[in-house]
Structures are given as structure tokens and as C-alpha cells.
Amino acid sequence: MDEGSSTPYGQDSPPPGSGPPPGYGAPPPPNYPPPGGYGGPPPGGYGGPPPGYGAPGGYNAGPPTSDDRTWALLSHLSYFVLSIIGPIIIMVTKGKESAFVRDQAVEALNFHITLAIASVISFILIFVIVGIFLLAAVIIAGAVLAIMGAIAAYNGTAYRYPLTLRLVK
């Protein structure tokens, strides 16, 4: 027993300096786990309307119309036909009428520019053989992601391509 206590050492209180490790047994932070799962959406977001869409004074209010969704779908699918030119034409013409169409056309344009840069680099690397595989990967990934973007746009969801340079705002 300790001299100044009536209980044996360790029965009622832990020895000085011991105890749970830091953070152990601490109350959880507020809103833990966060609503909607762990982490929430990425900072740029991968879904939902574009920033300012449907805001007072915006291009149009409410969800995207069928026409808006069709033009957004075409801007993504232009990967297969018009590449960089398709999203530019859609952005300049229909982008003035709908914030959703403009947002998706800009996203498709940025993606197509990124793919063009990756394709040029891959073509140059063909001389060291690795470029053949890299070029094939760029073409396949571009096709798959363009189709995913087209499906999301047609469903009325703003799509964000991964690993894309955001050169056009």
C-alpha cells in the first residue's frame, strides 16, 4: 500500500504517467461518422449540378432539361468523332443557354485536351517501345471514361473526369 492512500497501488487508480494511449477513449468528433458515409464527396465533387447551377440569375433554374442532357451527352461522345472541336462548338452555341451544358462541354474539352497531350507523349515514346502500350491504354481509357461521362450527363449528373488538366474554365 502507498503511504498516503488507503487502497493498494493500482486497484482504484492507474500509476502516474500510465493510462490509455493518446486519443484512446476520447469522445468521437462531432458528426462522426460524417453523414453519407466516410469522407464525403471530393473537394471538386464528382456529382451533382455544376457550381452556381440553378442559382437566382443563373442560366436556367431547376434540373437539366432533356435537351440539356442530350447536348451534354454529345459533348462527351464527341471523343469518338470530333474530339476537341465538338465540345468547343457545343460550349459556344448551347453553353449560352444552359449552365449544365456549358459545364459538361468544358469538362469534355479539358478531358480531350488532356488525352491529346497524353497521346502525343505516347506517340513519341513509341520509339522506346513502351509508347505502344501507353498509347493503347490512353485510347481505351479515353473511350471508357467518355462513355461513363456520357451516361452520367444523360442522367442529369455533372461528371468529372479523373486525372484531367483543368485548362479551360
Per-chain topology:
Blueprint lengths: L65 H12 L7 H9 L5 H26 L5 H25 L15
Helix pairs in contact: 1-2, 1-3, 1-4, 2-3, 3-4
Structure overview:
- With 169 residues, the protein is mainly α.
- It has one domain.
- 43% of the residues lie in helices and 0% in strands.
- It contains four helices and no strands.
The total beta strand count reads 0
Uncertain residue ranges: 54-59
Helix content: 40-55%
Query: What coarse outline follows from CA principal-axis ratios?
Result: flat
Pick out its properties.
single chain, 169 residues, mainly alpha
Quick take:
With 169 residues, this protein is mostly helical. It has helices at residues 66-77, 85-93, 99-124, 130-154.
